Amino acid sequence: MFSNQLLEKGKAAHKQGRYEEAIQFLEQFLESNLTQLGENHPVVAATWFRLGQLWMERGNPEQALTQFAKTRDSQIRNLGETHVHLTNTWNQMAAACVDQGDYDRAIEYHQEALNISLRHYSEFHPSVALTCKSLGMVWYRKGDLDQALTYIQKALGGFRVICAEDHPLLAQTWNNLGMICEAQGNHREAKSYFTKALNVARKAGLDTLKFTLEQKLEQDETTSSKSQSSEPRKAAPRKDSSHSQSASDPQNLVTG
């Protein structure tokens, strides 16, 4: 038997937002019990994972990645490489890499998570859709808009099946699609996606995203109107003449 008093103190401190204290308790727990339990014990793996979360919340992704990697190695030894519990660990490792700006490794780790999820679930499972969303946004940050679009569309396909129409994930994913299309220069499509995101954000009570999108669409409308009014007058404009779309300034609307 092992003493879990330090472990419980660490969990309680974590829930209360006392991160430094939580880290101290959990590290003391491992120091006292690691030899007895061994690195493959589920409690040890879970403690390393919680330490990773704590370091992420403290803004130290390097330390977080170290703890998540220990969790992964323990889970692989204990459960095997394709066990579903590894999905979350790989995704957390990817998130730590994103925070360090290491997008290539983040993509690699998210892909590991996706491969495992697809072994166990259908493409419409939340785990698959969430990982596709994360992958899409890493590709977006990396600048590969085609890959970003592919994965965000897959995520949207999953969320539309498993989520209610006013679910926050739908608002975020429509917004992500708008960001990608805008970066590609597809402003008409981007506006359509931003509008859909706004409609869902209003229903879901996502006030911050709602405000940002309202400002975004209003600014784009103003920019478009100014662009059209500044065009030189034509002596005899044709009724079927097409109006060129004005390009809005890119804005950072990343939500996840």
Automatic annotation (TrEMBL):
The record ties this protein, via Pfam families, to: TPR_12, TPR_8
First and last residues of every TPR repeat: 45-78, 87-120, 171-204
Cite the residue spans of the region called Disordered: 217-256
Q: Keyword check for Repeat, yes or no.
A: yes
Which InterPro entries has this protein been placed in?
TPR-like_helical_dom_sf, TPR_rpt
Signal peptide positions on this chain: none
Keywords attached to this entry: Repeat, TPR repeat
Report if keyword Cytoplasm is assigned: no
Q: Where are the compositionally biased (Basic and acidic residues) regions?
A: 231-242
Taxonomically, which superkingdom? Answer: Bacteria
Composition-biased stretches, type Polar residues, lie in 243-256
For this protein, the record's PANTHER family field holds: NEPHROCYSTIN-3 (PTHR45641:SF19), TETRATRICOPEPTIDE REPEAT PROTEIN (AFU_ORTHOLOGUE AFUA_6G03870) (PTHR45641)
Task: Please state what the protein is called.
Answer: Uncharacterized protein
